[in-house]
Amino acid sequence: MSATPILYCSHCGAKVEYRIPPGETVVRAVCPACHIIHYQNPKIVAGCIVEWQGDILLCRRAIEPRRGLWTIPAGFMELGESTEEAAARETLEEAKAVVDIYSLYAVFSLPHVGQVYVVFRGRLRTSEYGVGEESLEVQMTSLDKIPWNELAFPVIREILERYVKDREQPHSGAHFASLSPSSPSHPYEDA
Amino acid sequence: MSATPILYCSHCGAKVEYRIPPGETVVRAVCPACHIIHYQNPKIVAGCIVEWQGDILLCRRAIEPRRGLWTIPAGFMELGESTEEAAARETLEEAKAVVDIYSLYAVFSLPHVGQVYVVFRGRLRTSEYGVGEESLEVQMTSLDKIPWNELAFPVIREILERYVKDREQPHSGAHFASLSPSSPSHPYEDA
To answer: Are B130 and B82 within one domain?
Structure first.
């Protein structure tokens, strides 16, 4: 489940113990010195399908994991922002593009890595975009030219597959699903 | 932003330093001994509007914060589960009810407390429900009897207000919004 195991209390530095706190049912890291319970929770990856004249914006990753492969603008949400702000920020950082987010598209959970993708649809505000520091290349891509075999993450493939279908025949409501490494169609190696 | 400040490295117990890591733009807790960067991220609260013959299920909280006030089944998502599994688990724990989740209803961010509510709509599978350990009382409530002035959290009020409107005139797509303490209509004391 991807999160680094907690060995020491981040509040007082004592060694933690693993046990089920009173009134709970799950084993937690508990500090025997200052009694804080250290909860570990899934992280949100906020992303955006950025639209412009029928095309969508794809970025080729300049960083690991999956350097050189394609994805939509997406990244870990920070404290102090909303999911839609996080998605717009990632779009600005990775593709130097200002996006107007207009709908919630999908919430996809990856329980095996403790991540939840929250993906919006947005429109490029002007025709301007560029190559951000975390990208090697940024392109407006027509739906029939999506590089299916060079996408960085299976979850992005799953979301874009739905998106292409929805563009042909609109789906009412947002998508939600849980993806696992045992998914038969697209095995999840490490993402 | 609610998260407890990190003072010690949870991996090696050394005192952390606060600085901007190379290639980043945000100040992080960084361990000078083992070089781990300790990211802090928003937490997901997964919840469900549980429907049965036109009514919805409300729980009166037996625990702080907001003991004695009403809410929908909702709670912090755990590692190893999906958002929809978390919402169904909370429904079982708080209202002893088995729910079939059928749509994603809302993603509401509370940046000031580092929380994101992910709320689904679901149908009670059978007529059975009860009072879970974290509830004082659980009731099927008709929409014209929602106790608006006794709801536990402003975000629940915002979501239920939209829900009541949507039941009159369906809204296409899922809702998303960011709520803040300065929201003029419903101040957020401590959410």
So the answer is: yes
- Statement to judge: residues A52 and A33 lie in one domain: no
Number of domains observed in the structure of chain B: 2
How far off is chain A from B135, nearest CA to CA, in Å?
13
> Residue A126 belongs to what domain range?
43-178
Residue of A nearest to B16 (CA): A10
pLDDT digits (tens, 9 = 90+) for A48-67: 999 999 999 999 999 999 99
Cβ pair A104, B173 in contact under 8 A: yes
Cα separation, B43 vs A177, whole angstroms: 19
Query: Are B72 and B7 in a shared domain?
Result: no
Q: Do B13 and A11 touch (CB under 8 A)?
A: no
Q: Determine the distance in angstroms separating the CA of A50 from the nearest CA of chain B, rounded to an integer.
A: 17
pLDDT tens for B69-90 read 999 999 999 999 999 999 999 9
Contact between A2 and A114 under an 8 Å Cβ cutoff? The reply is: yes
How do residues A24-43 score in pLDDT, each as one tens digit? 889 999 999 999 999 999 99
pTM of the predicted protein model = 0.93
Rounded distance, CA B148 to CA B160, Å?
9
